[in-house]
Design goal:
The protein is of the alpha+beta class. It has eleven helices and 25 strands. The strands form four sheets. Strands 1, 2, 3, 4, 5, 6 and 7 form a seven-stranded mixed β-sheet that branches. Strands 10, 11, 12, 15, 21, 22 and 23 form a seven-stranded mixed β-sheet that branches. Strands 9-16-17-19-24 form a five-stranded mixed β-barrel. The longest helix has 18 residues, at about 130-150.
Length: about 475
């Protein structure tokens, strides 16, 4: 079995050893500063876009460089270069160092390699596979979607993979290296019945290789997307008003991620712009709710062997039985709060500075049979899939679009509905959770999270839950 976890890539390929890293860190701290770090990245990726049963686009590329950060009090200096020669790196270090005023200098502690976890072994590396193997996966998905129903008139499939080598060297002596794989299969289906057109999007992936498709066949993934597109042809207009809502297991975790997770990132709380600021130890949700951010789930899309500041990921309990336990920390926020970094310092590329970000965020399961939650609702909605939404961090207000939902009438799931929008407040919604199912599910790997112009891969998960009331924006009165 091939594994992706290895060390020494930058030393072997570019001659960037511990001694040179120490020299660059010393240059970064030459004007003063409390802390400095180096983030080396070498990323190789490829992609294929398949539309109208033909390859529309195929490509790939390599990106590499180093980001250099200097922290001086609450200020951060950041510079990067794609040129990994010693001269170019020293120049970038001197640029980042300009944030620090001249004064007391703190030299770096000599870096020494430390071991990291191996949470995403790869058996069938896609970056080593010929394009025809990836194209075969795409064609299988395309054929299965088209065969699902005559109403499926258009199918778009894309496949992407990457392998990313990173090394993080810090002025407090850490040197951590990792190799991070990723694959993602995206499928879009358009159904037509007369003048009515409906589309659905789905797929899967994670931090693994082509062996993913042994357990998640391209056919199954494609048929599920086709099913949603066809289902919407018979969907009725969603009612509008305040209703009890059952949020299904798995993908509903994206609502938890957006409506609650971002507000628990420490930088918002350090700046007191989150509605969770200064509320550690207080009740912020129903006693049935426990929320966790966990970067250690094997092969999940949001999993990391080491965060982008050189810290090990952890399983961080954020809310336990309704009580706020703490925030997701990077180094700067952890120093402010007087706690240890939680392994949540993440960045998009070497061109970006790190900040507190989620990894895999989910709610723990309860004890109820999911069917009990349906039976407990006289009239409401059952929501399963989502296309995204918007959240106001300062107060937790959210708006989400639902792509697969059903009416619940008399304790039974009945007609599919379309045009569903969920409108609510994160803390209020968690406080209105009245039942939690025992069917926890981690959503498949296709979610990407944006914050301050940076995007990173994340995982989400959830059991089925019943919320006593969420405002539904529909197209007709409820």
């Amino acid at each position: 079995m091939a594994t992706t976890n290895s060390s020494g890539f930058f030393s072997e390929r570019y001659g960037i050893d511990a001694r040179l890293m120490n020299d660059i860190l010393a240059a970064a701290l030459a004007r003063g500063g409390n802390y400095a770090d180096l983030y080396f990245e070498h990323r190789q990726n490829s992609s294929i876009l398949f539309e109208e049963q033909a390859v529309k686009n195929a490509g790939g590329g390599v990106m590499q460089g180093v980001g250099i950060r200097v922290v001086h009090g609450d200020a951060t200096g950041y510079a990067y270069t794609e040129d990994l020669t010693p001269e170019a790196m020293r120049q970038a270090a001197e640029t980042a160092a300009k944030i620090a005023s001249r004064g007391d200098r703190v030299g770096p502690v000599p870096v020494s390699p430390r071991s990291v976890a191996d949470l995403y072994p790869v058996r069938m590396p896609p970056w080593e596979a010929p394009p025809r193997e990836k194209l075969d996966i795409i064609r299988r998905a395309d054929a299965a979607a088209r065969a699902y129903d005559d109403m499926i008139q258009r199918v778009v499939v894309s496949f992407g993979d990457e392998i990313k080598h990173v090394a993080i060297a810090t002025s407090d002596g850490t040197l951590a290296e990792d190799v991070q794989p990723m694959i993602r299969l995206n499928i879009q289906c358009l159904s037509e019945r007369g003048a009515n057109r409906q589309s659905a999007v789905g797929g899967g992936g994670g931090r693994l290789g082509l062996e993913y498709f042994e357990a998640h066949s391209p056919e199954d993934l494609a048929r599920d997307v086709a099913r949603q597109a066809v289902l919407l042809q018979s969907a009725i207009d969603a009612p509008a008003g305040l209703f009890p809502v059952v949020l299904g297991a798995g993908d509903s975790g994206i609502l938890l991620h957006e409506a609650v997770g971002h507000g628990l990132e420490a930088d918002f709380n350090r700046k007191k712009t989150s509605n969770y600021s200064d509320r550690v130890g207080q009740s912020v949700a129903s006693t049935m709710v426990t929320v966790v951010d966990d970067g250690t789930i094997p092969s999940s899309r949001g999993t990391i062997n080491v965060d982008d500041e050189g810290n090990a990921p952890r399983k961080n309990v954020l809310i336990e039985e309704g009580v706020l336990q703490g925030y997701m920390q990077d180094r700067i926020s952890a120093r402010h709060f007087g706690v240890q970094p939680s392994g949540n310092g993440r960045r998009e590329t070497f061109r970006h500075y790190p900040m507190p970000r989620m990894t895999n965020t989910y709610m723990l399961p309860g004890e109820s049979d999911p069917e009990e939650l349906i039976r407990a609702v006289d009239r409401g909605l059952y929501c399963l899939s989502y296309s995204g939404g918007q959240v106001n961090i300062s107060n937790g207000d959210f708006v989400f679009s639902v792509t697969e939902a059903y009416l619940i009438e008399g304790g039974k799931v009945t007609a599919p509905v379309k045009g569903v929008t969920l409108i609510g407040n994160g803390p209020e919604t968690l406080s209105n959770v009245t039942m939690v199912g025992a069917d926890y599910q981690l959503s498949d790997g296709r979610w990407t999270c944006g914050k301050d112009g940076q995007s990173v891969p994340v995982g989400v998960g959830m059991p089925t839950i019943l919320v006593s009331g969420i405002t539904v924006g529909g197209t007709k009165g409820g």
